[in-house]
Give the backbone structure.
Amino acid sequence: MTSSQTAPAAVKILIAGGFGVGKTTMVGAVSEVAPLRTEEYLTKASIGVDDLAGVGQKDTTTVALDFGRITVSSGLVVYLFGTPGQERFWFMWNDLVNGALGGVVIADTRRLETSFASIDFYESRDIPFVVAINCFHGHNTRTPDEIRAALDLDPHVPLLIGDVRERPFGRDVLLALVDHLMSLPAATG
Amino acid sequence: MTPYWEDEAEEDGANTMVRPYTITRGRTAPERDDFSLITVLTTAQDPRDEHGAPVRPGRLQPEHRMILERCHRPAAVAEVASDLGLPVSVTKILLADLVAQGLLLARAPLSVARVAGGADMGLLAAVRDGLRRL
């Protein structure tokens, strides 16, 4: 009982990708709870999420994101946030991306172009990421090298191919991200 | 005592008010803006003021009480918002009220930003061990 009174430390991992590519599916596959949904107001005129003064005049929109959690230990919880499908929204949402441990880009080989924005976003924010190619029904006609070339991926960025509905694949994607993070040199210095 | 926010409430204009902000009495920003989506909240077990006397809660709304009930088990801001069915920014205002009164404890997320040197190896190893058990 006493241990439940102490707040665990929290970290977060982002799950990005084009609309309908399987972000929430992957969150649900590895999360210990069914994906939760939360909403936020964003204004197109403003970057800060808390700056909603004059909300009546500005163009305000509501975006939703789904998230899940993995309790690593009594003192550490990993939150997984599926980013809103339309990148133009989560570009504005600093709170979502600040302080992320790393990210996953889920891509579909039939429409790889929908993942360009997610890759650009992670790269521009210096958020390390891995790419997960989602193959529902084993539907993949491209080799990893072809996919890498099409996505213009740096050679060191891990690329995995599998079915995001399956927990073992989701786990392997997250493990690949953690291994990738451990392989990176410290950014300072 | 008149709550400070009542001064501003009428100027907001009922027609343009986004409904959830009525719960915050028209306030659109929290007292403190350092909450993140994964700041973890825990209800204080025996809140005391600086003189060691038990804290007597100020005016609490039903949503405040729901938060205190919810956070007997630690929960992240995103989870509280989801449970309450309120937008994150509205939830943060209510959370800030409770933290300011000492009724709720907030724990900031671990710093893992690459510009600050990234996550430390011990943390990453702990995450990896936890993921392997999935």
Q: What stands out?
A: The first strand of chain A starts at residue 9 and ends at 17. Chain A touches chain B through 59 residues (CB under 8 Å). Strands of chain A lie at 9-17, 36-43, 60-73, 76-82, 102-107, 129-134, 159-162.
